[in-house]
Amino acid sequence: MLSATAGALLAVSLATTPLMQSKLSAEEAAVFGQGESISSNPNFRLPQLTRPVSILILGAKVLSTDVQNPPAYARNLGYQATINSLDGLTDTMLLVRFDPDSKKLAVLSIPRDTRAYVEGYGVTKINEANYYGGPALSAKATSELLDGVGIDRYVRINVQGIEKLIDALGGVTVYIPKDMKYQDDSQHLYINLKAGKRRLNGNQALQFLRFRYDENGDIGRIQRQQMLMRALMEQALNPVTLARVPKILSVIQSHLDTNLSVEELMALVGFATQTNRSNVKMLMVPGDFSAPGEFQASYWVPDQDRIQSLMAQHFNLGVGSALPTNPAYLRVAIQDSTRESAATDGVMSALNQAGYENVSVNDPWTEPLNVTRIVAQQGDAESAEALRQVLGVGEVRIESTGALQSDVTIQVGKDWLRQQSR
Hints:
The chain has helices at residues 2-14, 26-29, 128-145, 159-168, 202-210, 217-235, 239-252, 262-274, 304-314, 341-353, 381-391, 414-420, and strands at 39-40, 48-49, 53-60, 90-99, 104-109, 115-118, 122-125, 153-158, 172-176, 180-184, 189-193, 196-200, 256-258, 280-284, 287-289, 300-302, 332-336, 359-361, 373-375, 395-397, 408-412. It has 422 residues and is an alpha/beta fold.
Protein backbone atom coordinates (compact mmCIF):
# COMPACT_ATOMS: atom_id res chain seq x y z
CA MET A 1 0.00 0.00 0.00
CA LEU A 2 2.96 2.28 0.62
CA SER A 3 4.13 1.80 -2.95
CA ALA A 4 0.62 2.48 -4.21
CA THR A 5 0.47 5.69 -2.22
CA ALA A 6 3.87 6.73 -3.51
CA GLY A 7 2.70 6.13 -7.05
CA ALA A 8 -0.44 8.11 -6.41
CA LEU A 9 1.52 11.05 -5.04
CA LEU A 10 3.77 10.98 -8.07
CA ALA A 11 0.80 10.92 -10.41
CA VAL A 12 -0.87 13.82 -8.64
CA SER A 13 2.36 15.77 -8.83
CA LEU A 14 2.38 15.34 -12.61
CA ALA A 15 -0.74 17.40 -13.18
CA THR A 16 -4.12 18.36 -11.81
CA THR A 17 -5.42 19.58 -15.15
CA PRO A 18 -7.41 17.38 -17.58
CA LEU A 19 -5.53 15.04 -19.90
CA MET A 20 -7.30 16.50 -22.89
CA GLN A 21 -6.51 16.40 -26.57
CA SER A 22 -9.80 17.79 -27.84
CA LYS A 23 -10.77 21.41 -27.31
CA LEU A 24 -14.32 21.64 -25.99
CA SER A 25 -16.31 24.80 -26.45
CA ALA A 26 -18.00 26.27 -23.38
CA GLU A 27 -21.28 24.75 -24.59
CA GLU A 28 -19.69 21.32 -25.06
CA ALA A 29 -17.93 21.45 -21.69
CA ALA A 30 -21.26 22.25 -20.03
CA VAL A 31 -22.62 18.86 -21.14
CA PHE A 32 -20.49 17.22 -18.47
CA GLY A 33 -20.93 17.58 -14.73
CA GLN A 34 -19.69 20.95 -13.62
CA GLY A 35 -20.84 20.79 -10.00
CA GLU A 36 -18.92 19.74 -6.93
CA SER A 37 -15.58 18.04 -7.29
CA ILE A 38 -15.61 14.27 -7.73
CA SER A 39 -12.42 13.61 -5.75
CA SER A 40 -10.31 14.84 -2.87
CA ASN A 41 -6.70 14.36 -1.86
CA PRO A 42 -6.69 14.84 1.93
CA ASN A 43 -3.31 15.34 3.53
CA PHE A 44 -1.57 14.03 0.41
CA ARG A 45 -3.04 10.57 0.82
CA LEU A 46 -4.48 8.47 -1.99
CA PRO A 47 -7.14 10.52 -3.86
CA GLN A 48 -10.67 9.38 -3.06
CA LEU A 49 -14.05 9.75 -4.72
CA THR A 50 -16.37 12.14 -2.92
CA ARG A 51 -19.63 11.23 -4.67
CA PRO A 52 -21.14 8.85 -7.25
CA VAL A 53 -19.71 9.52 -10.71
CA SER A 54 -20.78 8.46 -14.22
CA ILE A 55 -18.01 8.24 -16.83
CA LEU A 56 -18.62 7.78 -20.57
CA ILE A 57 -15.88 5.68 -22.17
CA LEU A 58 -15.55 5.79 -25.96
CA GLY A 59 -13.31 3.39 -27.84
CA ALA A 60 -12.53 4.49 -31.38
CA LYS A 61 -11.08 2.65 -34.35
CA VAL A 62 -10.21 5.13 -37.10
CA LEU A 63 -9.04 4.06 -40.55
CA SER A 64 -7.08 6.22 -42.97
CA THR A 65 -10.16 6.33 -45.22
CA ASP A 66 -12.30 7.71 -42.38
CA VAL A 67 -10.59 11.11 -42.37
CA GLN A 68 -10.10 13.74 -45.08
CA ASN A 69 -6.39 14.26 -44.44
CA PRO A 70 -4.76 11.04 -43.20
CA PRO A 71 -1.19 11.31 -41.88
CA ALA A 72 1.57 10.94 -44.44
CA TYR A 73 2.61 7.48 -43.22
CA ALA A 74 -0.90 6.13 -43.91
CA ARG A 75 -1.19 7.35 -47.51
CA ASN A 76 -0.68 5.22 -50.60
CA LEU A 77 -0.29 2.00 -48.62
CA GLY A 78 -2.77 0.05 -50.71
CA TYR A 79 -4.93 -0.76 -47.69
CA GLN A 80 -6.95 1.05 -45.00
CA ALA A 81 -4.48 1.61 -42.19
CA THR A 82 -5.54 2.15 -38.58
CA ILE A 83 -4.37 5.62 -37.56
CA ASN A 84 -3.81 7.39 -34.27
CA SER A 85 -7.00 9.41 -34.20
CA LEU A 86 -9.99 9.71 -31.88
CA ASP A 87 -12.46 11.36 -34.24
CA GLY A 88 -14.09 8.42 -36.02
CA LEU A 89 -16.92 6.03 -35.30
CA THR A 90 -16.84 4.43 -31.87
CA ASP A 91 -16.51 0.66 -31.75
CA THR A 92 -17.02 0.61 -27.98
CA MET A 93 -19.29 2.71 -25.75
CA LEU A 94 -19.48 2.18 -21.99
CA LEU A 95 -21.20 4.16 -19.27
CA VAL A 96 -19.51 3.39 -15.95
CA ARG A 97 -20.95 4.40 -12.58
CA PHE A 98 -18.56 4.51 -9.63
CA ASP A 99 -20.60 4.68 -6.40
CA PRO A 100 -18.58 5.18 -3.20
CA ASP A 101 -21.80 5.23 -1.14
CA SER A 102 -22.83 1.66 -2.04
CA LYS A 103 -19.26 0.55 -2.88
CA LYS A 104 -20.53 -0.73 -6.23
CA LEU A 105 -19.37 -0.32 -9.80
CA ALA A 106 -21.76 -0.66 -12.75
CA VAL A 107 -20.55 -0.95 -16.36
CA LEU A 108 -23.22 -0.51 -19.03
CA SER A 109 -22.27 -1.57 -22.57
CA ILE A 110 -24.01 0.36 -25.36
CA PRO A 111 -24.04 -1.58 -28.66
CA ARG A 112 -22.52 0.56 -31.39
CA ASP A 113 -25.50 -0.09 -33.70
CA THR A 114 -28.04 1.11 -31.12
CA ARG A 115 -30.83 3.10 -32.77
CA ALA A 116 -30.74 6.49 -31.06
CA TYR A 117 -31.41 10.19 -31.54
CA VAL A 118 -28.27 12.21 -32.26
CA GLU A 119 -28.84 15.94 -31.98
CA GLY A 120 -28.63 17.63 -35.36
CA TYR A 121 -28.58 14.35 -37.27
CA GLY A 122 -31.81 12.65 -36.30
CA VAL A 123 -32.27 8.96 -35.55
CA THR A 124 -29.19 6.97 -36.50
CA LYS A 125 -26.61 4.59 -35.03
CA ILE A 126 -25.28 5.95 -31.76
CA ASN A 127 -21.65 5.28 -32.70
CA GLU A 128 -21.88 8.06 -35.31
CA ALA A 129 -22.22 10.72 -32.60
CA ASN A 130 -18.47 10.83 -31.94
CA TYR A 131 -17.74 11.19 -35.65
CA TYR A 132 -20.16 14.12 -36.01
CA GLY A 133 -19.55 15.93 -32.73
CA GLY A 134 -16.96 14.27 -30.52
CA PRO A 135 -17.42 13.36 -26.85
CA ALA A 136 -20.00 16.07 -26.09
CA LEU A 137 -22.42 14.92 -28.79
CA SER A 138 -21.83 11.30 -27.76
CA ALA A 139 -22.69 12.22 -24.17
CA LYS A 140 -25.87 14.00 -25.27
CA ALA A 141 -26.98 11.00 -27.34
CA THR A 142 -26.19 8.62 -24.48
CA SER A 143 -28.12 10.70 -21.96
CA GLU A 144 -31.08 10.92 -24.35
CA LEU A 145 -31.06 7.13 -24.78
CA LEU A 146 -30.65 6.34 -21.07
CA ASP A 147 -33.57 8.19 -19.53
CA GLY A 148 -31.71 11.49 -19.05
CA VAL A 149 -28.78 10.16 -17.01
CA GLY A 150 -26.16 12.75 -16.11
CA ILE A 151 -22.60 12.21 -17.35
CA ASP A 152 -19.76 13.71 -15.31
CA ARG A 153 -16.68 13.03 -17.43
CA TYR A 154 -15.58 11.23 -20.57
CA VAL A 155 -12.62 9.13 -21.69
CA ARG A 156 -11.78 8.50 -25.36
CA ILE A 157 -9.17 5.95 -26.32
CA ASN A 158 -8.33 4.33 -29.65
CA VAL A 159 -7.38 0.75 -30.43
CA GLN A 160 -3.65 1.51 -30.35
CA GLY A 161 -4.08 2.88 -26.83
CA ILE A 162 -5.93 -0.26 -25.69
CA GLU A 163 -3.14 -2.43 -27.08
CA LYS A 164 -0.48 -0.37 -25.26
CA LEU A 165 -2.54 -0.34 -22.04
CA ILE A 166 -2.81 -4.14 -21.92
CA ASP A 167 0.88 -4.52 -22.69
CA ALA A 168 1.70 -2.03 -19.92
CA LEU A 169 -0.41 -4.10 -17.51
CA GLY A 170 1.54 -7.22 -18.46
CA GLY A 171 -1.16 -8.91 -20.56
CA VAL A 172 -4.38 -10.61 -19.52
CA THR A 173 -5.52 -14.22 -19.19
CA VAL A 174 -8.94 -15.05 -20.65
CA TYR A 175 -10.81 -18.14 -21.80
CA ILE A 176 -11.37 -18.02 -25.56
CA PRO A 177 -14.67 -19.83 -26.15
CA LYS A 178 -13.90 -21.03 -29.67
CA ASP A 179 -11.29 -20.79 -32.40
CA MET A 180 -11.32 -17.29 -33.90
CA LYS A 181 -9.95 -16.89 -37.39
CA TYR A 182 -10.61 -13.99 -39.74
CA GLN A 183 -8.66 -12.16 -42.43
CA ASP A 184 -9.39 -8.77 -43.97
CA ASP A 185 -6.58 -7.73 -46.31
CA SER A 186 -8.23 -4.36 -46.97
CA GLN A 187 -7.52 -3.37 -43.34
CA HIS A 188 -4.60 -5.71 -42.66
CA LEU A 189 -6.78 -7.23 -39.94
CA TYR A 190 -5.65 -10.76 -39.12
CA ILE A 191 -7.31 -12.66 -36.28
CA ASN A 192 -6.02 -16.09 -35.34
CA LEU A 193 -6.76 -17.28 -31.79
CA LYS A 194 -7.17 -20.82 -30.52
CA ALA A 195 -9.89 -21.83 -28.09
CA GLY A 196 -8.95 -22.34 -24.45
CA LYS A 197 -7.41 -20.46 -21.55
CA ARG A 198 -4.78 -18.12 -23.00
CA ARG A 199 -2.47 -15.35 -21.86
CA LEU A 200 -2.94 -12.53 -24.36
CA ASN A 201 -0.64 -9.62 -25.11
CA GLY A 202 -2.06 -6.31 -26.34
CA ASN A 203 -2.29 -7.29 -30.00
CA GLN A 204 -3.93 -10.63 -29.22
CA ALA A 205 -6.39 -8.96 -26.84
CA LEU A 206 -7.38 -6.60 -29.68
CA GLN A 207 -8.01 -9.61 -31.90
CA PHE A 208 -10.25 -11.05 -29.18
CA LEU A 209 -12.13 -7.75 -28.86
CA ARG A 210 -12.51 -7.03 -32.56
CA PHE A 211 -13.75 -10.44 -33.67
CA ARG A 212 -17.45 -10.17 -34.56
CA TYR A 213 -17.89 -12.74 -37.28
CA ASP A 214 -20.37 -15.11 -35.67
CA GLU A 215 -24.14 -15.35 -35.23
CA ASN A 216 -24.27 -12.60 -32.58
CA GLY A 217 -22.19 -10.02 -34.46
CA ASP A 218 -21.56 -6.88 -32.42
CA ILE A 219 -23.47 -8.23 -29.39
CA GLY A 220 -21.11 -11.19 -29.24
CA ARG A 221 -18.24 -8.73 -29.24
CA ILE A 222 -19.81 -6.89 -26.30
CA GLN A 223 -19.95 -10.18 -24.41
CA ARG A 224 -16.24 -10.69 -25.08
CA GLN A 225 -15.55 -7.13 -23.96
CA GLN A 226 -17.22 -7.92 -20.65
CA MET A 227 -15.21 -11.13 -20.29
CA LEU A 228 -11.99 -9.19 -20.89
CA MET A 229 -12.97 -6.36 -18.54
CA ARG A 230 -13.77 -8.78 -15.72
CA ALA A 231 -10.48 -10.60 -16.31
CA LEU A 232 -8.57 -7.30 -16.18
CA MET A 233 -10.30 -6.29 -12.96
CA GLU A 234 -9.51 -9.63 -11.32
CA GLN A 235 -5.89 -9.76 -12.50
CA ALA A 236 -4.61 -6.23 -12.95
CA LEU A 237 -6.56 -3.90 -10.66
CA ASN A 238 -4.71 -4.08 -7.36
CA PRO A 239 -2.61 -1.70 -5.24
CA VAL A 240 0.44 -2.42 -7.39
CA THR A 241 -1.45 -1.03 -10.40
CA LEU A 242 -1.79 2.31 -8.63
CA ALA A 243 1.96 2.59 -8.36
CA ARG A 244 2.26 1.95 -12.11
CA VAL A 245 -0.31 4.54 -13.19
CA PRO A 246 2.27 7.25 -14.08
CA LYS A 247 4.14 4.82 -16.34
CA ILE A 248 0.92 3.55 -17.88
CA LEU A 249 -0.27 7.10 -18.55
CA SER A 250 3.02 7.99 -20.21
CA VAL A 251 2.66 4.95 -22.49
CA ILE A 252 -0.91 5.59 -23.64
CA GLN A 253 -1.26 9.38 -23.29
CA SER A 254 -0.91 10.05 -27.02
CA HIS A 255 -3.88 7.73 -27.61
CA LEU A 256 -6.06 9.13 -24.82
CA ASP A 257 -8.39 12.10 -24.50
CA THR A 258 -10.27 12.83 -21.27
CA ASN A 259 -11.55 15.72 -19.20
CA LEU A 260 -10.55 13.86 -16.04
CA SER A 261 -7.62 15.28 -14.13
CA VAL A 262 -4.87 12.91 -13.03
CA GLU A 263 -6.09 13.18 -9.44
CA GLU A 264 -9.62 12.24 -10.51
CA LEU A 265 -8.31 9.36 -12.60
CA MET A 266 -6.31 8.08 -9.62
CA ALA A 267 -9.41 8.26 -7.43
CA LEU A 268 -11.37 6.17 -9.94
CA VAL A 269 -8.62 3.56 -10.26
CA GLY A 270 -8.22 3.47 -6.48
CA PHE A 271 -11.96 2.90 -6.03
CA ALA A 272 -11.94 0.10 -8.61
CA THR A 273 -9.02 -1.68 -6.91
CA GLN A 274 -10.90 -1.66 -3.60
CA THR A 275 -14.26 -2.80 -4.99
CA ASN A 276 -15.31 -6.34 -4.17
CA ARG A 277 -15.70 -8.27 -7.41
CA SER A 278 -19.21 -9.35 -6.37
CA ASN A 279 -20.14 -5.65 -6.42
CA VAL A 280 -19.11 -5.22 -10.07
CA LYS A 281 -22.10 -5.29 -12.42
CA MET A 282 -21.68 -5.58 -16.18
CA LEU A 283 -24.84 -4.68 -18.04
CA MET A 284 -25.94 -4.09 -21.62
CA VAL A 285 -28.57 -1.78 -23.06
CA PRO A 286 -31.61 -4.08 -23.35
CA GLY A 287 -33.10 -4.49 -26.79
CA ASP A 288 -33.19 -6.73 -29.83
CA PHE A 289 -31.89 -6.94 -33.38
CA SER A 290 -34.05 -5.13 -35.95
CA ALA A 291 -35.94 -7.38 -38.34
CA PRO A 292 -34.70 -7.68 -41.94
CA GLY A 293 -36.17 -4.80 -43.95
CA GLU A 294 -37.56 -3.05 -40.85
CA PHE A 295 -35.22 -0.08 -41.34
CA GLN A 296 -32.83 1.02 -44.05
CA ALA A 297 -29.93 -0.07 -41.84
CA SER A 298 -29.58 -2.87 -39.29
CA TYR A 299 -29.94 -1.69 -35.69
CA TRP A 300 -29.93 -2.81 -32.10
CA VAL A 301 -33.40 -1.54 -31.15
CA PRO A 302 -33.46 -0.46 -27.49
CA ASP A 303 -36.27 -1.49 -25.12
CA GLN A 304 -37.14 1.75 -23.34
CA ASP A 305 -39.22 0.11 -20.60
CA ARG A 306 -36.33 -2.14 -19.62
CA ILE A 307 -33.88 0.76 -19.91
CA GLN A 308 -35.98 2.71 -17.41
CA SER A 309 -35.96 -0.20 -14.98
CA LEU A 310 -32.23 -0.83 -15.46
CA MET A 311 -31.32 2.83 -14.88
CA ALA A 312 -33.45 2.93 -11.74
CA GLN A 313 -31.90 -0.25 -10.34
CA HIS A 314 -28.26 0.32 -11.17
CA PHE A 315 -27.78 4.05 -11.83
CA ASN A 316 -30.08 5.44 -9.14
CA LEU A 317 -32.12 7.28 -11.76
CA GLY A 318 -35.86 7.70 -11.36
CA VAL A 319 -38.29 4.96 -10.48
CA GLY A 320 -38.54 2.07 -12.92
CA SER A 321 -41.03 -0.76 -13.01
CA ALA A 322 -39.78 -4.03 -11.54
CA LEU A 323 -38.30 -6.62 -13.85
CA PRO A 324 -40.25 -9.89 -14.10
CA THR A 325 -39.78 -12.09 -11.03
CA ASN A 326 -42.72 -14.48 -11.38
CA PRO A 327 -41.10 -17.91 -11.91
CA ALA A 328 -43.72 -18.88 -14.47
CA TYR A 329 -42.73 -16.03 -16.80
CA LEU A 330 -39.02 -15.62 -16.14
CA ARG A 331 -36.98 -16.59 -19.22
CA VAL A 332 -34.30 -19.01 -18.00
CA ALA A 333 -31.62 -20.49 -20.26
CA ILE A 334 -29.39 -23.41 -19.29
CA GLN A 335 -25.85 -23.75 -20.67
CA ASP A 336 -23.89 -26.85 -19.66
CA SER A 337 -20.13 -26.68 -19.09
CA THR A 338 -19.75 -30.17 -17.58
CA ARG A 339 -20.27 -32.26 -20.74
CA GLU A 340 -22.60 -34.47 -18.70
CA SER A 341 -26.08 -34.74 -20.24
CA ALA A 342 -27.58 -35.53 -16.84
CA ALA A 343 -26.52 -32.08 -15.62
CA THR A 344 -29.01 -30.12 -17.72
CA ASP A 345 -31.75 -32.70 -17.11
CA GLY A 346 -31.31 -32.32 -13.37
CA VAL A 347 -31.34 -28.53 -13.49
CA MET A 348 -34.43 -28.53 -15.71
CA SER A 349 -36.23 -30.87 -13.31
CA ALA A 350 -35.34 -28.77 -10.26
CA LEU A 351 -36.55 -25.58 -11.93
CA ASN A 352 -39.81 -27.12 -13.14
CA GLN A 353 -40.56 -28.38 -9.64
CA ALA A 354 -39.99 -24.86 -8.31
CA GLY A 355 -42.52 -23.38 -10.78
CA TYR A 356 -40.17 -22.16 -13.50
CA GLU A 357 -41.96 -22.92 -16.77
CA ASN A 358 -40.15 -20.82 -19.39
CA VAL A 359 -36.88 -22.78 -19.35
CA SER A 360 -34.76 -23.74 -22.37
CA VAL A 361 -31.45 -25.54 -22.95
CA ASN A 362 -29.00 -23.54 -25.04
CA ASP A 363 -25.67 -24.37 -26.65
CA PRO A 364 -23.08 -25.55 -24.09
CA TRP A 365 -20.77 -23.11 -22.33
CA THR A 366 -17.36 -24.15 -23.59
CA GLU A 367 -15.29 -23.06 -20.58
CA PRO A 368 -15.26 -25.84 -17.94
CA LEU A 369 -16.61 -24.34 -14.71
CA ASN A 370 -16.05 -25.60 -11.19
CA VAL A 371 -18.70 -23.23 -9.83
CA THR A 372 -22.07 -22.75 -11.52
CA ARG A 373 -22.66 -19.21 -12.76
CA ILE A 374 -26.14 -17.76 -12.51
CA VAL A 375 -25.96 -14.83 -14.90
CA ALA A 376 -28.43 -11.98 -14.49
CA GLN A 377 -28.46 -11.24 -18.22
CA GLN A 378 -30.89 -8.32 -17.90
CA GLY A 379 -29.51 -7.07 -14.56
CA ASP A 380 -32.22 -8.76 -12.46
CA ALA A 381 -30.13 -9.79 -9.46
CA GLU A 382 -33.18 -10.67 -7.34
CA SER A 383 -34.40 -13.33 -9.78
CA ALA A 384 -30.87 -14.70 -10.21
CA GLU A 385 -30.48 -15.05 -6.44
CA ALA A 386 -33.85 -16.85 -6.22
CA LEU A 387 -32.61 -19.36 -8.81
CA ARG A 388 -29.37 -19.86 -6.87
CA GLN A 389 -31.40 -20.72 -3.80
CA VAL A 390 -33.47 -23.24 -5.77
CA LEU A 391 -30.33 -24.98 -7.04
CA GLY A 392 -28.41 -24.70 -3.79
CA VAL A 393 -25.12 -24.07 -5.62
CA GLY A 394 -23.42 -21.42 -7.73
CA GLU A 395 -22.60 -17.74 -7.73
CA VAL A 396 -24.66 -14.85 -9.06
CA ARG A 397 -23.04 -12.67 -11.69
CA ILE A 398 -24.62 -9.49 -12.97
CA GLU A 399 -23.32 -9.38 -16.52
CA SER A 400 -24.49 -9.88 -20.09
CA THR A 401 -22.46 -12.96 -21.04
CA GLY A 402 -25.39 -15.39 -21.05
CA ALA A 403 -28.03 -16.25 -23.66
CA LEU A 404 -29.23 -13.03 -25.30
CA GLN A 405 -32.95 -13.73 -25.07
CA SER A 406 -32.89 -14.87 -21.43
CA ASP A 407 -33.60 -12.97 -18.25
CA VAL A 408 -31.25 -15.30 -16.36
CA THR A 409 -28.78 -17.85 -17.75
CA ILE A 410 -27.54 -20.79 -15.69
CA GLN A 411 -24.07 -21.95 -16.75
CA VAL A 412 -23.87 -25.34 -15.04
CA GLY A 413 -20.61 -26.19 -13.26
CA LYS A 414 -19.14 -29.22 -11.51
CA ASP A 415 -20.51 -28.13 -8.13
CA TRP A 416 -23.98 -29.11 -9.38
CA LEU A 417 -22.77 -32.61 -10.24
CA ARG A 418 -21.10 -32.96 -6.84
CA GLN A 419 -24.30 -31.95 -5.10
CA GLN A 420 -26.40 -34.40 -7.11
CA SER A 421 -24.06 -37.29 -6.30
CA ARG A 422 -24.41 -36.89 -2.54
